[in-house]
Each structure stands twice: as C-alpha cells, then as structure tokens.
Design goal:
The protein is about 30% helix and about 30% strand. With about 140 residues, the chain is an alpha+beta fold.
C-alpha cells in the first residue's frame, strides 16, 4: 500500500477517521489538499497532512484506523511526507502531540519549548485550541545544520 493525495471524495471518510482518532477535523475543507491517505479495499485507513508555512512545514493529523494500527502505516505516511518536505525546500517541519512524542522522536523530531515555536505555529488554531500547554512541540530540521 502506498499513500496518495486526498481528493474531495475522501472528505467524509477522512473526517470520520480524524474524529475517531480524537483529532480536529473542523478545518479539513481548508486543508484537504495537504493530506495523504492510504486506503485498503476502498476503505480509508490512514492519513497524515503537511501544511506549508513559508520555509517551514506543520506535520499534522497522523491517524490510523484502530483495526490497522501497528502495521506501520502512520510511519509510512510520515516518511512520505518528510521525503517530500526534504525535496520541497522546507527548512524544518514542526508538529504538536499530546501522546506520540516518543514515536516522533524515533523519526528525527526533537522537543522544542513552546515559546520557541515560530510565530505562524503559535498563531495556528491547533496551537491555541487543540494542543494545550501540556502538548509537546517538536521540530525536525530538513537541512544540514
């Protein structure tokens, strides 16, 4: 299985997957083109998105349907997104998580203090609403520092 770009026909299934995974879906219409999805036998089973903000990216909404967790689908989509980010002149990719900081550390992300997050991330609705002060902010450099 390989990821593909989300299309308008994925909207309802993608919204359901995000809600079932406890992730925000209210801005899905605005960011649908940022999503990559994996489907199996016509069922959408995994997703992830990369929003671009200038020279940075925001990895968000990495979700896998409960019946398919542990199969590496989230890691696959994350890798696909990071490969595209590396080839797309992004300087860094940021994310926020309440539960998966160890998972993302294994993929090259390092914790960053919330106050060091770029202004665009600090102003993002996810930062302000869905990811409270206890959320871990992480960054992965896409350049050779």
């Amino acid at each position: 299985m390989t990821g593909r770009a989300a299309v308008a026909a994925d909207r309802a299934a993608l919204r359901r997957l995000l809600v079932d995974s406890g992730l925000p879906a209210d801005d899905l219409d605005q960011h649908l083109p940022a999503f990559r999805v994996i489907e199996e036998e016509g069922e959408l089973i995994a997703c992830a998105a990369l929003e671009r903000h200038g020279a940075d990216g925001y990895l968000r909404s990495v979700a896998v349907a409960a019946a398919h967790r542990g199969a590496g689908l989230g890691a696959q989509l994350t890798s696909e997104i990071l490969e595209a980010a590396a080839g797309g002149s992004l300087r860094a990719v940021w994310l926020m998580t309440l539960t998966a900081d160890r998972y993302f550390a294994l993929r090259g992300f390092v914790k960053a203090p919330r106050e060091e997050a770029p202004a665009w991330l600090r102003a993002h609705p996810h930062f302000l609403t869905y990811c409270p002060a206890g959320a871990v902010v992480m960054r992965r450099s896409m350049t050779l520092d």
